[in-house]
Amino acid sequence: MLPLIRSATLENFADADGVPDPALAVPLYAALSAPTVVTGFVAVSPDGRAMQPRQAGLWNDAQRDAWGGIVSEVRRARPGVRLLAQLAHAGLQTTRPGAISPSGGRSPYFRNPSRTMSPDDIRRVVSDFAAAATRARTAGFDGVQVHAAHGYLAHQFLSPATNRRRDEWGEPGRFLADVLRAVRAAAPPPFAVWIKAGPDATALSAERLADALVPLAAEGLLDLVEVSFGTMDRALDIFRGGCPLDLLLHENPLYRRRVPRALAPLWRKLAAPLVLRRFRPFSPCYNLDAALAIKRRTGARVAVVGGFRSGEEISAALAAGADAVSLCRPFLREPGFADRLARDPAARSRCASCNRCAIACDGDEPTRCHLVP
Ligand SMILES: Cc1cc2nc3c(=O)[nH]c(=O)nc-3n(C[C@H](O)[C@H](O)[C@H](O)COP(=O)(O)O)c2cc1C
């Protein structure tokens, strides 16, 4: 079996208190054919939630118990599957009140004010990550993935664009190291502790990111780095491909507010082409070079995610040195894609990278592929 990972994919299947719904979660995970499955964004605290209304959490025991039931049901359906919970804090990338971040300010996209974290805030969030990891272990997960990519809080500490602190947490890798040490102390091996990290289009280059990760790798804090790209301010740089404007104007709460219905046709004609031109276009395997550079520089094991659509591309990435390959949209399109690849190594994903899944997941309904009837 290829070392494939279902990359974290926000499921939107929790209630307003962040408790995941087993009736939605169990069939979803049980249908996935990837040998390793990472859950979507699971918030470590109420103030760590991103803008999506139905994301799950692991900050209390009710959430832990719901996850525990889900994990044991999925294991019954798919013996041998490896399950990791993706632990995250949104920092300033949220529309919710009370946002916190390394140096305050607003993100250009969310435009929500955030408060600079005090040392006590930082220590509290570090211990929230550790407590969430303990709950993940008790719930039966095989590990956690600390989300340090896509512009969320740990990424905000890594990037000089959002971290202008003069204290010890001004050092780019310091917050992430604190989180990983605390998580490791709470959940010793063989519990897996991965991170997802990636450069972005503004201030965090792959070289700068690799430099920040070197001491963490030397300390043995990085079991595996899943390499992605971008921030939610420019989300189409993360999941490249199409931009369904109808869905964007209809489902995205920020666009619904900013582009009144009467102006939508004008916006589509005049503004949308300018907005869309800023994003990077889809190309196959678009994070492979960065992943291999990070592996070379840190010596850590890497998985690579972004634009893998065929058995040939996956095999080539593994031959080039990636330790695993992660896929998100192809598994939304076809949960059995890994089984089809096992039967036919030349198989191609039916995902069209249209991004209807990505745009719609800012709304209220569970995430799904909109091309599947
Ligand atoms: C609908 C959707 C939800 C996503 N949710 C998450 C998430 O919760 N956490 C995360 O790290 N990445 C998330 N991503 C990003 C993917 O994990 C992945 O990095 C990106 O889609 C590129 O991989 P792909 O080309 O295989 O889709 C999401 C992407 C999509 C399309």
Mean pLDDT: 96
**Number of helical runs?**
14
Strand order of the largest sheet: 1-2-4-7-8-9-10-11
Number of domains: 1
CATH architecture: Alpha-Beta Barrel
Q: Flag low-confidence runs.
A: none
Listing every helix as H and every strand as E from the N terminus to the C terminus, the arrangement reads EHEEHEEEHEHHEHEHHHHEHEHHH
Quick rundown:
The chain has 373 residues and is α/β, with parallel strands linked by helices. It is 39% helix and 13% strand.
Features:
373 residues; 39% helix; globular; TIM Barrel; alpha/beta
Account of the protein in words:
- With 373 residues, the protein is of the alpha/beta class.
- It has a single domain (4-239, 283-352), classed as Aldolase class I (TIM Barrel, Alpha-Beta Barrel).
- It contains 14 helices and eleven strands.
- Strand 1 (4-6), helix 1 and strand 2 form a beta-alpha-beta unit.
- The longest helix has 21 residues, at 119-139.
- The chain is globular and about 55 Å long.
- The two termini are 29 Å apart.
- The mean pLDDT is 96.
- Bound molecules: flavin mononucleotide.
- Flavin mononucleotide binds next to strand 2, helix 12 and helix 14.
